[in-house]
Design goal:
heterodimer, A: 110 residues, mainly beta, globular, B: 114 residues, seven-stranded mixed sheet, four-stranded antiparallel sheet
């Protein structure tokens, strides 16, 4: 079957670094997306990995290991506005079909 | 603003009502999607349209009926819904070449079925 696992909740301190992990089991895997979703708002695109390795984009980085079915999102220099849910989604066969995890709710404290 | 708008933002309906959700994208994309997001559950893909043709129907009950009159507009027609259909309904769009595309989401319609 298709399965995406990520922690339900995490907390971190302003200015710190946090890593949100995601493991996946999907057929026809074709890449891994991370989205950010603030409460009551649309998910917004953060990153896309299709090859193994680290992609860095400002304060956010995303890593993929296809052989391990594993990805993580790394957030540096945390700010209060980073408090949100982070959604891991695997691109899996079909027509651009995204399989989402349930999301990790991150709370950043002063 | 992602370039994808949805109306209404909130909707309350009874189980015998008929209503429609509207999505419009201003990104020049050719593919559009409907997702359902229930509390503490993953986003679930419902329908995919590419160039106004339905290319994916993810075992959705017939009380949900999509319509895509052109590549910029997508509707979800609702009739005889159940309370468990209460959720956030999200629309998304992508370029439409079918390969490794980023999907851009609208703000969603929060639906409550009484």
């Amino acid at each position: 079957g298709q399965n995406i696992d990520q922690p339900t909740e995490m907390t971190a301190t302003e200015g710190a670094i946090v890593q949100i992990n995601c493991t996946y089991q999907t057929s026809g895997f074709n890449g891994l997306f991370w989205y950010q979703q603030h409460a009551g708002e649309a998910p917004t695109f953060l990153s896309y990995n299709v090859l193994d390795g680290l992609e860095e984009k400002g304060r956010f980085s995303s890593f993929l290991s296809r052989s391990k079915g594993y990805s993580y999102l790394l957030l540096k220099e945390l700010q209060m506005k980073d408090s949100a849910s982070y959604l891991c989604a695997a691109l899996s066969g079909g027509y651009n079909k995204l399989i989402f995890g349930a999301g990790t709710r991150l709370a950043v404290h002063p | 603003e992602t370039g994808v708008t949805q109306t209404p933002r909130h909707l309350v309906m009874g189980m015998t009502n008929k209503k429609s959700l509207k999505c419009e994208q201003h990104l020049g994309h050719n593919a559009m999607y409907w997702y359902k997001q229930s509390a503490k559950k993953p986003l679930e893909l419902m329908f995919v349209y590419s160039l106004e043709e339905r290319v994916e129907n993810n075992s959705v009950p017939s009380r949900f009926s999509p319509e895509c009159p052109n590549s910029s507009h997508l509707f979800l027609h609702l009739h005889t819904l159940q309370p468990e259909d209460s959720a956030l309904y999200l629309c998304a769009s992508s370029q439409g070449n079918g390969v490794q595309e980023t999907q851009y989401f609208g703000p969603g319609t929060r639906l409550l079925v009484l």
